[in-house]
Specification:
The structure holds two protein chains of two kinds. By secondary structure, chain A is an alpha+beta fold. Chain A contains 16 helices and 16 strands. Chain A starts with 21 loop residues before the first strand and ends with a strand. The chains are: A alpha+beta, B alpha+beta.
Chain lengths: 423, 63
């Protein structure tokens, strides 16, 4: 038996630090016109992006910005769908719109396969993950998730007001993904820092972002080495052993996929749980109806995913082209707003309303095409269980202080502070 | 009534087997599969239509 020495040395030593790529000037501050100067990093976008998206859809459905080195923001369902399906003209080499574009040589693998991968490599990297994330595979985690949700609520005993984002929503996906990867459950607070660095620091100088991302990869390397020594039945050991075309994965592929599962598994579901609780806390009629009709929850949950879709992705334009009225340049960003697509009146009746018994709901909260969220079945299980337990334990709750609610900025949007009165 | 999944379009969202579990199942990778011959008993026709109208990829056809 050969010893697995892929992770003995820090595989990153062979890389240039910080990596080559293109950087551009950081532009922050109030947006002058959302059609020509949009920025998803500004506070007004975080606070309430929907009126901005609705207005753009009417006036200028594919907005442009010079910020972040240049980018586009489609707001109609049909344009978002067309881009999601078009991997020939749009690359996933970078999926977080920031002031740094990784070098083109990174394609088709990217830094976090398969989300950062393009065809044909993408298919193989994705296929490795799919069996672990089917509906029946994640169903095995439901009982544990439910017990954990109850434990979080037990810990709130004696309080009249709790922070449903920080004390509840956040912890559920952290615990589940840590267990799936085989990380110590007490490392949760570090994960929060990794998530914020990856997703919310987009206007930091690229060198600082890079330094921060190294903390995540330092952590992952420790976990990988520990698993090489002591293999077990979890996703980390699975990725260490996995093969593509008869070869073990590159160490950067193993670590990149682990980074993806950790980051994408936490912030997104945390946001979906928080946004759903926020809606129910401020909408007594919907809350009362779900308490009275628990069987409606799976339908209502899809509506929360449509109306408050947490995730926006990004793409890079591959080559200069004229696309639906815009002169797109190679390496322009496209901010692929699934939330905006989900509120397009051309696709949804009463698009701006939350209709918890909406029966026809072809929403795209988990994306479309080959990059459909690999964790969607896991996210749905966590969201359903989190809401079921909350409604069972707190049938009557309300927003304690609407003005105190804060929302994450950037491409994953959900409540980060959510004071709810439970007593 | 009969249902069919276009496997070129299906991306494994799983809405069909969530909404019409008598008619659709998942394969080992989570892609949707028609159970048996895809013949829809009259009692399942509503569920079949729900699956069609909730598939984000428009991958299900009623024949």
């Amino acid at each position: 038996m050969t010893v697995d020495d892929r992770f003995n040395q820090d595989y990153r030593e062979a890389l240039e630090e910080p990596p080559l790529g293109s950087r551009n000037e950081v532009i922050t501050g109030p947006v002058s016109d959302w059609a020509t100067d949009f920025s998803h990093a500004e506070p007004e976008w975080a606070a309430d992006p929907y009126p901005i998206q609705d207005e753009l859809r009417q006036r200028c459905p594919i907005a442009h910005t010079e910020r972040f080195g240049g980018g586009w923001l489609p707001t109609r369902y049909e344009d978002v769908a067309a881009i999601a399906y078009d991997t020939e003209h749009f690359s996933s080499r970078a999926i977080i719109m920031s002031n740094f574009r990784p070098p083109v040589e990174l394609a088709p693998v990217g830094t976090a396969p398969p989300i950062s991968s393009d065809p044909p490599f993408h298919h193989h990297a994705r296929k490795l993950l799919l069996p672990a994330f089917t509906k029946s595979a994640v169903a095995k985690r439901e009982a544990g998730t439910r017990a954990y949700c109850h434990a979080l609520i037990d810990a709130m005993a004696g309080q009249d007001v709790v922070d449903a984002a920080a004390d509840y929503a956040q912890h559920i996906p952290m615990r589940v993904i840590a267990e799936m990867l085989g990380f110590p459950p007490e490392d949760g607070p570090q994960f929060r820092e990794f998530v914020e660095n990856a997703l919310e620091g987009i206007n930091l100088p690229p060198e600082e972002r890079f330094a921060r991302s190294q903390q995540l990869f330092d952590y992952l390397l420790v976990q990988i080495r520990e698993h090489v020594e002591h293999p077990r039945d979890d996703l980390t050991s699975y990725l260490i052993d996995a093969e593509l075309d008869g070869n073990k994965l590159d160490p950067s592929h193993v670590a990149g996929t682990m980074a993806l599962l950790l980051i994408a598994g936490i912030d997104t579901t945390w946001s979906a749980i928080g946004a759903s609780l926020w809606h129910l806390a401020k909408t007594p009629a919907d809350r009362e109806r779900l308490v009275a009709e628990p069987a409606l929850l799976p339908t209502a949950m899809e509506e929360f995913l449509r109306a408050y879709a947490p995730v926006t992705m990004a793409r890079l334009v591959k080559q200069d082209m004229h696309w639906r009225g815009g002169d797109m340049k190679a390496d322009d960003w496209v901010l692929l707003s699934f939330p905006a697509a989900n509120r397009d009146p051309a696709q949804f009746d009463r698009a701006g309303e939350v209709v918890i018994d909406r029966e026809v709901n072809r929403h795209v909260a988990f994306g479309l095409g080959i990059h459909r969220c690999v964790g969607s079945h896991l996210a749905r299980m966590e969201l359903r269980v989190a809401l079921e337990v909350w409604l069972e334990r707190f049938p009557d709750f309300s927003l304690a202080d609407p003005a105190a609610v804060t929302w994450a900025a950037g491409q994953v949007r959900g409540p980060r502070t959510l004071p709810i009165r439970i007593g | 009534m009969k249902v069919r999944i276009d496997s070129e379009r299906c991306q494994g969202h799983g809405r069909c087997y969530d909404l019409a579990p008598d008619l659709f199942g998942e394969d080992d990778e989570g892609y949707g599969q028609v159970i048996g011959e895809g013949i829809v008993p009259p009692d399942d026709e509503r569920a079949a239509r729900l699956a069609v109208s909730n598939c984000p990829e428009r991958a299900i056809e009623i024949l």
